[in-house]
């Protein structure tokens, strides 16, 4: 039997909110707690306002940091005028992981029914780093982590997972 060892990944958490602080950031804390419980490392944590340039700037900074493998943001994925997290993520993506939003919607439908259509959760890759934008509710963060990310960020998960292809994310940047 091909048993793999667990490989911890370094994850940064970004909460996008005009009103939250570390003291009352329940969604960010939900992610932080689950990251630790799964055996991964919290590499960084920030709270930024709903400002597209600030969000994309932080994402780019973290994507350039070799000590960060994954970025998970929470908040700003809805439909209101201040919800710009998805656009900020897409400013940074080299490739979008289209099925992430689809799978998240399927998971959400089981919990909140057709209200799931109001989320624009997204995932992508930039500079060898995975990025995921989740809604700003603790329930949505739990659902995304418990149903998708805990598995895809676990090297032991079969038939395939995000961790096993880390080395290939930047193969287009290598000298031929």
Index terms:
176 residues; Molybdenum Cofactor Biosythetic Enzyme, Chain A; globular; alpha/beta; 19% strand; 5 helices
Label the CATH architecture.
Answer: 3-Layer(aba) Sandwich
Sheet with the most strands: spatial strand order: 2-1-3-6-5-4
CATH topology heading = Molybdenum Cofactor Biosythetic Enzyme, Chain A
Instruction: State the low-pLDDT regions, or none.
Output: none
Q: How confident overall, as mean pLDDT?
A: 94
Helix fraction by DSSP (H/I, runs of at least 4): 25-40%
Put simply, the count of helices is 5
Structural class designation: alpha/beta
Rg from alpha-carbon coordinates: 15 Å
Net shape: globular
Q: Write down the domain tally.
A: 1
Major β-sheet, in short? 6 strands, mixed
What is the N-to-C succession of helices and strands?
EHEHEHEHEEH
Care to count the β-strands?
Answer: 6
CATH superfamily: MoaB/Mog-like domain
Q: What is the terminal separation in angstroms?
A: 36 Å
- The CATH class, by name, is Alpha Beta
What fraction of residues sit in β-strands? 15-25%
């Amino acid at each position: 039997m091909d048993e793999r060892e667990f490989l911890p990944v370094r994850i940064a958490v970004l909460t996008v909110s005009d009103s939250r602080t570390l003291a009352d950031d329940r969604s960010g804390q939900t992610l932080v707690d689950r990251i630790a419980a799964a055996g991964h490392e919290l590499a960084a944590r920030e709270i930024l306002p709903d400002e597209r340039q600030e969000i994309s700037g932080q994402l780019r900074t973290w994507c350039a940091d070799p000590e960060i493998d994954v970025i998970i943001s929470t908040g700003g994925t809805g439909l209101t005028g201040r919800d710009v997290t998805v656009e900020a993520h897409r400013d940074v993506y080299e490739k979008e992981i289209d099925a992430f939003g689809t799978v998240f919607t399927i998971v959400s439908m089981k919990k909140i029914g057709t209200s799931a259509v109001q989320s624009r959760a997204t995932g992508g890759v930039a500079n060898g780093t995975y990025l995921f934008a989740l809604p700003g509710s603790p329930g949505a963060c739990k659902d995304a982590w418990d149903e998708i990310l805990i598995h895809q960020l676990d090297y032991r998960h079969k038939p395939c997972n995000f961790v096993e292809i880390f080395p290939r994310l930047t193969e287009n940047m290598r000298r031929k």
